């Protein structure tokens, strides 16, 4: 008997709550605003990664060019320079060659990453053509 009483009471309690609260959806404007915020966050992350990659590429490019210039100065201009070069100069040439090689490898990686990030950004903008980034006050 006690179980029947509890079951009836629980049914009444749940039934009354169900009747009071029907399904409610957010407004179309609120949904659109939420979507804009989400898309904006993804595009902002892509833009940040793209800008950082381009800055790294520019700085590394300057350093590689500087290393190339310093290496060319230490080479000398004689036709048989490599035969009479001091061991210390050979060591410096090896260091320059390693730095230049690592820098050029990284530049290739950055060029590839930048191209991929630009593609992702373009894909995002084409998938969400109605997205308008917030205008910055000038």
UniProtKB/TrEMBL annotation:
<protein>
    <submittedName>
        <fullName>Uncharacterized protein</fullName>
    </submittedName>
</protein>
